[in-house]
Structure to design on (309 residues):
């Protein structure tokens, strides 16, 4: 596969993920929050499991342990987002959750006691100012939804770091598929406890759930895995930074969400912080080593995928 084609596939995945905020908001019109999580990840697990059934026959206990942990963190991510979307816009949610790429190096620096670079410090400052422009409304109030989306960004950063650690120890394809199943299972359990599990009662609800399950979860995961073998991590990170732009676009196009000038300024600052945080020095061996230890081993994951097919 040529790098241009791989970049286009990554862009397609980014569009899927950018649209997910709108689909989640649509789905919440038909079913409750935990119910939506259960259906989204449950159906994604069934689809991915059916495709890679033979691979899943070789699961070990270590894989199940890490998958359960990652599934729970993923459940926390989307619990925060789905509840957050009840009181914030899809545009705000997209930009705030995208701060994951700023949180990842920050958390890594704190865990491994690495020196926080000037580049990361500037990224954090830009992100904080951008979030303030996006979320603070006169007379100086922030919605609970915005706080929940910030929590989602933090949880997702933790998820990425744990994946980077677990990927060195277990079969990464099985890990990726099983975490979807555990996330759906946690959603189902909480739905039974706090809600009454149901199926969507409208065509709109089913469309949202199927789009989230097939496009944003199962297909997005597979396409990302294949494409990242043929493009660089830097290019991938920069393309993924467009996710909030697509979230804002879909929010405007289908939900008539119009951002104010203040919010546009905040969005631009957040994008600048994300872009700055994804730029790596190619001549720094130490940086490359840290990146290697804390990033999913995309090449191994792709080989697993190809073997399964």
């Amino acid at each position: 596969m040529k790098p241009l084609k791989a970049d286009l596939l990554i862009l397609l995945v980014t569009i899927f993920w950018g649209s997910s905020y709108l689909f989640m908001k649509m789905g919440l019109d038909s079913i409750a929050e935990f119910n939506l999580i259960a259906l989204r990840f449950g159906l994604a697990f069934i689809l991915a499991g059916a495709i890679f059934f033979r691979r899943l026959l070789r699961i070990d206990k270590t894989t199940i342990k890490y998958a359960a942990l990652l599934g729970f963190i993923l459940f926390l991510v989307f619990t925060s987002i789905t509840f957050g979307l009840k009181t914030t816009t899809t545009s705000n949610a997209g930009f705030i959750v995208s701060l994951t790429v700023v949180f990842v190096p920050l958390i890594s620096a704190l865990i491994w006691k690495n020196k926080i670079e000037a580049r990361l410090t500037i990224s954090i400052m830009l992100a904080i100012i951008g979030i303030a422009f996006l979320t603070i409304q006169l007379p100086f109030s922030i919605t609970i939804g915005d706080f929940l989306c910030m929590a989602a960004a933090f949880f997702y950063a933790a998820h990425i770091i744990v994946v980077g650690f677990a990927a060195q120890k277990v079969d990464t394809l099985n890990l990726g598929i099983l975490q979807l199943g555990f996330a759906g299972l946690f959603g189902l359990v909480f739905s039974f406890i706090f809600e009454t599990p149901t199926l969507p009662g409208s065509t709109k609800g089913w469309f949202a759930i199927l789009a989230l399950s097939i496009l944003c979860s199962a297909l997005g995961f597979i396409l990302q895995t294949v494409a990242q073998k043929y493009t660089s991590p830097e290019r991938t990170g920069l393309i993924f930074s467009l996710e909030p732009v697509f979230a804002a676009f879909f929010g405007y196009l289908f939900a008539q969400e119009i951002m104010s000038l203040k919010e546009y300024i905040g969005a631009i600052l957040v994008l600048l912080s994300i872009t700055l945080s994804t730029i790596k020095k190619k001549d720094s061996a130490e940086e490359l080593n840290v990146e290697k230890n804390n990033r999913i081993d995309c090449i191994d994951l792709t080989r697993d995928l190809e073997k399964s097919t």
